[in-house]
Amino acid sequence: MPKRKRNSLGKVKHYRQRSYTRKNLLRRRILKWALGLAALFLVGWLVAGPVVDFGSGLWYSLKNRPAASDSSAPQPDSDPAASGSNPEATPEPEQPEATPDTASIVEGSWSYVSLSALTSEEQAAATAADLASQGVRYAVITLKDAQGYIYYDSQVALAAQSKAGMLVDAAMAARVFKEAGIIPVAGLSAFEDPKTPYTDRNLSVHYGSQDVIWLNAAADAGGVPWLDPTDAAARQYIADLIAEIKALGYDQFLLSGVQFPSGYSLNAAGYDAGLATEIDKTAQLSAIISAWQQQADADGSVLWFEYPADQAALETSDTIGSLAGLGVRDLVLDMDALSPEDDGTQRTAALNAASGAEHLVLHTGVNGSFER
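Above: the chain's sequence. Below: its structure in token form.
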């Protein structure tokens, strides 16, 4: 039986199918590579610009950065000429207005200011402006009077019972007068003080060695007590007031009543330093004035002392001893105390007694003037 021939076409057909499959796979791979390369090219094209710009900027910044050790190298925009700009010059800070020197003695007229003119800042400013227009250089503001009243809100313990019903803003008054070019002067009555002895009787003048407050006249005749000038606590009270007022803006002070009592029964007065008949009043007061002046010098203050011209005219006075021996540097004489019948003798004697003072002001009424 003859052999059947194999179907050669079947084999050829099978080969062709396998060849087609391989070619198809190869095409797919080529297509994938082509797509991958195209995608990679697209991504590279998209990021190449920013990357190049960043790299270039970084390289140039590193290249142009000054060396760390060269602290004097100019910084960008630090040279106005290089940048071509003309920046505005920085304005110089305004200089504060010069404040008047209120701790120096200058010549000029004085005026004693009524406290009713200081009840508000507007009133005080108007008063100061009016006085300045008149050429006044010193304004005396009474902060403790001869009745013992305190006219500002003092925090000194002994002053608590002596405050007046009307108080002024002492710091405001000092500031307003300084702004007007006027020197504010704090007026204080020292030992002529009828109120404080009743607050602390140990500070008062006594009858001899008795523990009884001395009065300068009988009680039914209006007699009043005085502070004892020889008592350390009494002197400290005045010194404390001066220090407190200094802090409120006052550099100059006018002290009156720096004396021994006037009135009747003076021989019966007793002091810490002894009986009135035994005391060297000139020496006692001179020591007080010297101590206060030394403290004022240390604090940058000026103390004026005011005395009645009729007492200054006496060779020896019951109240101050000898004016010439007190050692007062800056003196005010109350000329209203002269006798109306004085023919000039008292005045001349008072001026002679005051000749040792470095500065002398004559007080008449509400005004004062330097004596040349």
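Residues 1-15, 50-85 have pLDDT under 50 and may be disordered.
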